[in-house]
Task: structure prediction
Amino acid sequence: MARRRDNAEWSDPGLLVLGSLAGGPRHGYSMTADIAANAGIELGPGTLYGALARLEGQGLIVALPADGARRPYAITAAGTQTLRARLAALDKFSKVAGARLRAATA
Amino acid sequence: MARRRDNAEWSDPGLLVLGSLAGGPRHGYSMTADIAANAGIELGPGTLYGALARLEGQGLIVALPADGARRPYAITAAGTQTLRARLAALDKFSKVAGARLRAATA
DNA sequence: ACCAGGTACTACGCCATACGTAATAGTGGC
DNA sequence: GCCACTATTACGTATGGCGTAGTACCTGGT
Result:
């Protein structure tokens, strides 16, 4: 797996893509820009489209009719649910870890 | 990479371990329990000790003198910093994605 | 002393998948 | 009709997540 990029604190293409699509349909290339802006992580094409294919296979996103060379994708209901669940799990862990960090510092 | 476990919303052993050690030194086996309790994710031995070895190699945690069969680990200053940074990045992304989710629902 | 059971860790291997690089295709301007 | 730019596909590598199994330690019972 998951060779983590050296420049980033973390990375999870699938999650990043879902987060990006939560803002509305988008085609692949523009997700790269969106993700870079919002998370500070630059995904290469291989990473992005690989993740896209997997997410589509899982039914979390759907391909919309191509607009010229662009292939827009939209998040599905299942995708929204998954995103919500993962975000919740993340926040839960983040809170516990954050509290421990603060306790240790204090 | 990262074959994600089917039962979990997300997984990142390294981060989970750092979060667990932020609460104080612990040996491997007890991290498994702690992580299961706090994040709902059960790491197998292979996953856990692999992550521990990597983290130690990166200087984010240190092995303490063995206590019988147990091998306690403690988080280092670098580890704390890394944890803090990753948590911050996570929260940042989480906020953006959460806001989008809410906007879409509303 | 010996054995059984639970705790803690080591060893080994598979293969999914994150990531990079490079090639390809569609679009608009001049 | 060519050229630059945008967007995607193709391909290869190897990191590291995960499972399975096996080993050692420790405790209590008899």
